[in-house]
Amino acid sequence: MKVISYNLRKHRAIGELAHLADRHAPDVVCLQEADTTDIPDEVAGLRLADATSRNRLGLAVYYRENSMRALEVRSMALKKSLHDHVLRPAHERMLAVRLHDIDAGQEVIVASFHAAPLTALNSLRRHQIRTALDSIEQLGPGLPALMVGDYNYPAFKERLSQHIRDHGYALTLSDSRTYTRYRFFKGHYDFATSQGFDIERIRTLPQGSSDHLPILVTADVQVNRTTEDGAVVEPVE
Hints:
Blueprint: E1 2-7, H1 17-24, E2 28-34, E3 42-43, E4 46-51, E5 58-64, E6 68-76, H2 82-86, E7 94-101, E8 106-114, H3 122-139, E9 145-150, H4 157-166, E10 170-172, E11 190-195, E12 197-204, E13 215-221, E14 225-226, E15 232-233
Parallel strand pairs: 1-2, 8-9
Antiparallel strand pairs: 1-13, 2-5, 3-4, 4-5, 6-7, 7-8, 9-11, 10-11, 12-13, 14-15
């Protein structure tokens, strides 16, 4: 499975979606900071599963219509930062879709996530991540799950990684930084948390008109092996 995540920078990069889809052939595309009143229902063979509706700039998830079916969608409001309260509230910061991979005969969950901005504390973002992962688990208990997006977490990732591991997920960064707008804030902002997936690679794609660079996640669903006596052997991490 190939998944692209892209923060459009206040919808400025919306015109790049068709090129990204044609060039990289993703199965799923997850967007952040999209004007959800101005996005197409279909782009380059990808169908809009759903988009948030309570934010001026929200989230959207597209999937490849000839290989997947969207079964259920869940959006979620997460704990608000001071920025959300004072300026323009971001009601929904996670959008998850339960998908059926037709060829593999496997259900998976893919989610688009956008954490609170850097004005908030890391502890608040960790709370948001934990709550989002709990909601994903409720959408499809035990299903392989992949949450990608703008985590707004440029520093102290070791603590975040441990926090996510304690929750049963893995944190994976891309091969190069994904945010370049401000000198002192450059770094990895866009990455993935996963459970039940083997992440082969996360590649940072060339920069477009957004201050975030899109990322391309390549992953396989983990397959358990069964011994002759019927015991299940978990895949090696």
